[in-house]
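Revision sheet: structure tokens.
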Amino acid sequence: MLRESAIAFGYHLNLTAIGDPSVAIGVPGGDELLRFVDALVTGCKADREDARTAIMDSLGPDCLVDAASVFGNFEMMNRVAEGTGIPVSPRAVERMKDTVELPDLDRLSTSSESH
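Predicted:
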């Protein structure tokens, strides 16, 4: 969905940025949004405050609310999917392979070792 939206708006999306913060993602406000998500995931209060300020300064308060809402909804959907054991089909895994491999997302495990 992100890739198709970028194409539709004429952006040159660089998914490598998801796994490497030194790379620009190529979407207006994308670097600030990635920083915000990273701060929410790591739980570092100072990073969260800095990331919120960066979004407010560059994208405005409405975008901050939208970004927090999308993050919260995505987190909820993942928990429901994991909790109910929804399987991911081999076809879906194959279709997403380039997206997962490019930013090195396969290093993230859903096994009990990572929780």
